[in-house]
Amino acid sequence: MLESDRPKGRGTEARQRKARPITRIQREKQDLILEAALDVFSLHGFRGATIDQIAEAAGMSKPNLLYYFPRKEDIHKRLMAGMLDIWLAPLRHMDSDGDPIPEIRSYIRRKLKMSRDFPRQSRLFANEMLQGAPRIIDMLEGELKTLVDEKAKVIGGWMDEGKLNRADPYHLIFAIWATTQHYADFDVQVRAVLGNDRSGEGRFEDAACFLEQLFMHGLKPQRG
Amino acid sequence: MLESDRPKGRGTEARQRKARPITRIQREKQDLILEAALDVFSLHGFRGATIDQIAEAAGMSKPNLLYYFPRKEDIHKRLMAGMLDIWLAPLRHMDSDGDPIPEIRSYIRRKLKMSRDFPRQSRLFANEMLQGAPRIIDMLEGELKTLVDEKAKVIGGWMDEGKLNRADPYHLIFAIWATTQHYADFDVQVRAVLGNDRSGEGRFEDAACFLEQLFMHGLKPQRG
DNA sequence: CTAACATTTTTCCAACTGGTCAAATTTCTG
DNA sequence: CAGAAATTTGACCAGTTGGAAAAATGTTAG
C-alpha cells in the first residue's frame, strides 16, 4: 500500500506531551526546516520530496529533523497552513466599500506581487492542486469557497450598479488567479520564451501593465 | 544520489537492437502502458510516480512493463513528446492571414477545448513546469520559443494595423495559456468553489463565454 | 509441427524510503 | 559547577523502489 493512502493515527505534536515552553533552538531549527522543506516540496510535491533531501537542505541529519517534526506529513501540513494565509490574503483585502475599478486593479497587483515575492508558496499550492488537493480539499470547500462566494457577491453587486461590465464573477476571480499565478508556477516557461533580456526584473512590471490593460479594456479597439 | 539527478547513459530503445518490425502486441501494450502512465505521472509528477503504480494501472507486472520501456524515463519521454504536440497545436493553428479578433477568439476556444479534452496532458505539462522543466527545457527554449516569437510578431502586426488594442503580445499569449490551463490544472479548486451545481458540463461553456468577454472587452464599461 | 522469436513470470538485488531507538553530547537552570 | 532537560548522532529496521537475469510460456512463419 502506498504511504500517501495510509491513514495516520496520531496528531502532529507527538513530542511535546507536556506543553513545555518552546525553546530558542526549537524555533530556530523549525524555521530552518520549514524553509528547506518549502524548497523541496514546492519543487517535487509531497510524494516526490524526501526527508533526506529536506534534512540535507536544512543542514542537519534526518533523525535530528524528525526530532522536530516526527512525520513528513507534519512539515507539509505546517507549510500548507502558512501558505494558505499568504495565498488568501490578497482576496481578503478586497474592499466592498471601495471603488470597483481601483479595487480590482489593486487586487490584481497584490496577487501578482504575491507570485513575485512568494513563488515557492505559489508552487506548493499548485502542486497540491495538481494532485487533487488531497490534503486541503476541506479547506477549499470550506474557507476558500466561503471567501470566494462573499467576494463574488460583492463583484456581482458592482456589476448590478453598472460600475463594471457584466460577467461571471467566479470566472473573473479564476482568471485573476490564473494569470497572476502563471508568473510563479510557469516561471521556467516565461523565462524560456522571453529570453534572458526581458526575463529579469522588468518582467513583473510588464505583466502588471499588461494585466491591467487586459482586465480593464480587453483587446478590441473602441472605434468600430 | 537521487535518481532524478543521476545522468543516464543509454538511449531509449535498448530492447530493439536490430530494428525489428513492431508487432501488434507491442503496439497494444505500449499504448496501454502510456495510457496508464499518463494517469500516474500527471497526478504525481515524475519523481512521485512509481513503475509499480503504472504497471498496476496498466494491468501487468512490473518486469513485463519494463520489457516494453526499459526505463521509467523512457515512458515519461514518450508522453512528453505526445503531450507537447497536443499542447502546441492550438497556437500553431492561429492564422496570420485571418481576421485578428476571430483568430484570437478561436485560439482561446481551441486552447480551452484542449484543457477539457486532454486535462491529463495539461497537468503533465504543468507538473514538468513546476519542477523547472528539467526534461524539456531545450524544447522550451527552442521549438516553443520559436513558435511564440513568430506568433507574437503576427499579433504585434495586427496591433500596428490598429486591429487590436496595443498590448504586449507575449504577455497576451501567457494570459491565454494561464486562463485556459487553469480549468484543467486547478480543476479541483474550480469544482470546490463552484460547488456541485455549476461544476459539471456547463462549466467550460461558461468559461468560454467569460474569457471571450474578458479578452474582447475587459471590465470597464464604455460609457465613461 | 517445430524452431525461432516474442512475451510473461518468478526470483532477486542494491539503493532508497520513512521512521525508531538508545546512547552521546550540548545547553540551560539553579 | 552539577544535574536535568534538550538536542544530536549513529546504528538500525522493514517496506518500497527501479531495475536485472533467467527461466517459462506463447506465438508464428516456414
Q: What do you see in this structure?
A:
- The structure is a homodimer.
- Chain A starts with about 25 loop residues before the first helix and ends in a 7-residue tail after the last helix.
- Chain A has helices at about 25-50, 50-60, 60-70, 70-90, 100-115, 120-130, 135-160, 170-185, 185-195, 200-215.
- Chain A folds into two domains: about 10-70, Orthogonal Bundle (Arc Repressor Mutant, subunit A); about 70-224, Tetracycline Repressor, domain 2 (Orthogonal Bundle).
- The first copy, chain A, is mostly helical.
- In chain A, helix 5 packs parallel to helix 8.
- Helices cover about 70% and strands about 0% of the residues of chain A.
- The model of chain A is unreliable at about 1-20 (pLDDT under 50).
- Chains A and B meet through helix 1, helix 6, helix 7, helix 8 and helix 9 of A and helix 1, helix 6, helix 7, helix 8 and helix 9 of B.
- Chain A binds a DNA duplex (30 and 30 nucleotides) through helix 1 and helix 3.
Topology:
Two copies of one chain form a homodimer.
Chain A: H1 24-48, H2 51-58, H3 62-68, H4 72-92, H5 100-117, H6 119-130, H7 137-160, H8 169-185, H9 187-194, H10 202-217
Helix pairs in contact in A: 1-2, 1-4, 1-6, 4-5, 4-6, 5-8, 5-10, 6-8
Chain A binds a DNA duplex (30 and 30 nucleotides) through α1 and α3.
